[in-house]
Amino acid sequence: MNTTMLEKKTVWWSEPMVWLLITLPLTAVIAGTLTVWIAVKNADTLVKEEHVKDGMGIAKVADRDIKAAQLGVVATLQAEPGRLVLKLSGHFAKPQSGLTLTLVHPTDERQDMVLLFSPAGPDSYATAYASLPAGKRLLELAPGDRSWRLAGQWQAPFTGTLQLAAASQFSSTQHSPNQP
């Protein structure tokens, strides 16, 4: 007796191993493409562009802090309804014509804000101010020529007063007792 084996011919798409070999690389390609798309759409903005372009950017900021300490710069910010008032003291050769206060959100660049202070009396400056969403803000106060700076932090919504003072090497902040 002769037994013959019947060979079954199958088409390639009915084999599970073929689909396994196709699915794994295809999944990796899709995941890689999705990762690139997420990275481009949500670029990290924590590093300011000036520091990326110039490796000495941090040294320049430290020089501005030291200049503020040499001038004995002290600024007191007072939150009033609809505006901020700033009292400035220091050993300046001439009165400051205008000041810029940059409010930086620690993680979301879209929430950053720049306030321009105009003179409102002797050693006093004021600007209109709209409230911000709650959260921590990093502050940088500088004159128009950016020759010095004071840096600090403030918790939004802003209430009470905040004193920014230059220390010997780095800026420091002192909150009023009623500041959260």
Automatic annotation (TrEMBL):
The chain crosses the membrane at residues 17-40. Keywords: Membrane, Transmembrane, Transmembrane helix. This is Nitrogen fixation protein FixH. InterPro entries: FixH. The lineage of its organism: Bacteria, Pseudomonadati, Pseudomonadota, Betaproteobacteria, Nitrosomonadales. It comes from Parasulfuritortus cantonensis.
